[in-house]
Design brief:
Blueprint lengths: L2 H7 L8 H23 L5 E6 L6 H4 L24 E7 L5 H8 L7 H6 L1 E5 L8 H6 L2 H9 L7 E5 L4 H10 L16 H11 L6 E5 L2 H14 L5 E6 L8 E5 L10 H7 L4 E2 L6 H11 L1 E5 L6 E2 L1 E7 L5 E12 L5 E7 L6 H17 L4 E12 L2 E10 L6 H11 L2 E3 L4 E3 L5 E11 L8 H10 L11 E5 L4 H4 L1 E8 L2 H18 L13
Parallel strand pairs: 1-2, 1-4, 2-3
Antiparallel strand pairs: 5-9, 6-7, 6-9, 7-8, 10-14, 11-12, 11-14, 12-13, 13-18, 14-15, 16-17, 17-18, 18-20, 19-20
Helix pairs in contact: 1-7, 2-8, 9-13, 10-11
């Protein structure tokens, strides 16, 4: 099928046909056949097509500050160019400034920047509209042809994506290369409703609640039943099935519910007054999106000492499941449900136990054919001398904990030791990090990428390969316009990593534009 033929005959919003699904399964089987050889020989020629498309609901995504720059979060994968015969093709909506590209290439351990740059192809749609990148690519048959021309051998190429939707499947079929990611037909297991079903199947503890809710009437009935079963419950959480980083969540206050039987009308009347996590969210928009994607209601898990850890997994093309990391998430927003950043590794008190528990759900997902990276989030509550771990959601995509870990792995060439629950460098040293996607302040507006790099070098924040410590930046393109930045602060211990983070904030506050009042979020 030619690129032009594809765009002329295929409705990008239509469900995949049985023929497309069968062709994709066959295409994916090629990845499993070539995977063993590629892993065995790091010098083997290969091409990785990186598609950082936010192929999620665009109205919900629009609530995220500087969201179109989130295509830069996967720039950490440019460090794959440390493999001397690997080519990388990176797609974006708009062109990435060369200063940012140079920043990543100069982080490469042991590879001259010029050598890596010759093996890197950057292709942009020159389209900043609020639509998924992959849709923009598929609408441009000449760009699809240029992508194909940048891949010398499709037999040793694969795509890696932020998430794999119907759009990414169609791009894979157009190019004839497999995706190292989950088949879209399995994405139901990554929704809020699907997550609850997996947790129940795997025997994990999960919040009391209800899934597969379709509209406001379902919400009212579910809230009423939840309160009836637990009269002391003071708060419930409403979640859209395909919410992103907590932006699809809202909290319903049950503390004012009258004693005894309460009519459904009481719940319905209060739905518009829920506390929405997303900035600027309204009930009209929330209700519209909930009707289109469905969702869940569950208890707000109480606790005086409470953490929000997660466990990250990888299923390789041979079907092997690995725990690749654990994190304690840093959350914010109205009720602490918006992802702001993470600490790696998770607390020593529970990280090994948590990985064992999460692996039950990981194995259930692997048995259903899930491929690539995914994460499982928990709420952990300390009850006397033990921790209760409550599973809350599965993310079948590269989430906010993926790119910080990849930065650490590629910068140090170390690996995660699942027995110890720690990251170990080739020299046998441990490394931890504090990472955030939401270091944001009005005073940072106007700082350019060149300014940031100059500030980092002058203040000794830049990551040093010799010590394997320091700060690596991402979301650099969002800095000047939105005053927003991502950081991965790496240290021998978590305390040293957090010290780098605090120093970074202090330096940026001091160096930033002081013309406006400070408004900072995501500072841990």
């Amino acid at each position: 099928m030619t690129a032009s033929g594809m765009t002329e005959t295929v409705d990008l919003d239509a469900p995949a046909s049985p023929e497309e699904r069968a062709r994709f399964v066959e295409l994916q089987s090629r990845l499993s056949r070539s995977f063993r050889e590629l892993v065995a020989d790091p010098n083997a020629p290969r091409t990785v097509l990186i598609v950082p498309s936010l192929s999620l609901d665009q109205q919900v995504m629009a609530k995220v500050s500087g969201v179109h720059h989130y295509e830069e979060r996967m720039l950490c994968l440019l460090l794959l160019l440390r493999l001397p015969r690997t080519r990388v093709v990176y797609l974006t909506s708009t062109e990435i400034p060369e200063t940012i590209v140079d920043y990543y290439l100069h982080l490469l351990p042991g590879i001259p920047g010029g050598h890596a740059r010759k093996r890197l192809t950057l292709l942009a749609c020159n389209d900043a509209s609020a639509r998924p990148l992959t849709r923009k690519v598929l609408e441009r048959p000449r760009l699809v042809e240029r992508i194909r021309e940048a891949i010398p051998d499709i037999g040793t190429a694969h795509m890696t994506c932020f998430t794999v939707s119907e759009l990414e499947r169609r791009l894979a079929l157009a190019l004839g290369i497999p995706v190292y990611g989950c088949d879209p037909s399995l994405l139901e297991w990554g929704t809020k409703s699907g997550s609850r079903k997996i947790f129940r199947e795997a025997g994990l503890d999960l919040p009391a609640g209800f899934e597969d809710l379709a509209d406001a009437n379902d919400l009212a009935r579910a809230l009423a039943e939840l309160k009836a079963r637990n009269p002391g419950l003071r708060k419930a959480v409403v979640k859209m099935n395909e919410g992103f980083s907590g932006e699809g969540n809202a909290v319903f206050d049950l503390s004012e519910a009258p004693d005894g039987p309460v009519p459904l009308s009481w719940y319905s009347a209060r739905l518009p007054h829920m506390a929405f996590e997303a900035r600027g969210m309204t009930w009209d928009l929330y209700e519209e999106k909930f009707r289109s994607m469905g969702g869940i209601v569950e208890e707000f898990v109480p606790g005086d000492v409470k953490e929000s850890p997660s466990v990250q997994f990888r299923v390789d093309p041979m079907g092997h499941l690995d725990v690749v990391s654990t994190h304690d998430q840093v959350l914010g927003g109205n009720s602490g449900q918006i992802f702001l950043g993470c600490r790696f590794p998770a607390s020593r008190e529970y990280r090994l136990e948590l990985a064992d528990i999460a692996s039950k759900a990981g194995r259930a997902l692997a048995s259903k054919g899930v491929l690539g990276r995914f994460g499982i989030d928990f709420i952990s509550v300390k009850e006397k001398d033990r921790w209760r771990h409550v599973a809350i959601e599965i993310n079948l995509r590269k989430g906010g904990t993926t790119h910080p870990y990849l930065m650490l792995q590629y910068l140090t060439d170390g690996q995660f030791d699942p027995v110890r629950g720690e990251f170990i460098t080739p020299a046998g040293q441990t490394r931890s990090y504090f990472a955030s996607d939401n270091l944001e302040s009005e005073r940072y507006r106007g700082l350019t990428p060149s300014d940031l790099i100059d500030i980092a070098v002058l203040n000794k924040l830049h990551f040093h390969a010799a010590t394997a410590e320091g700060v690596a930046f991402h979301l650099i393109g969002a800095l000047s316009e939105f005053g927003k930045l991502g950081v991965v602060c790496i240290g021998e211990t978590l305390e040293r990593a957090e010290a780098y983070y605090k120093k970074t904030v202090a330096v940026l506050d001091a160096e930033g534009n002081r013309n406006g009042p400070s408004r900072s979020v995501g500072r841990g």
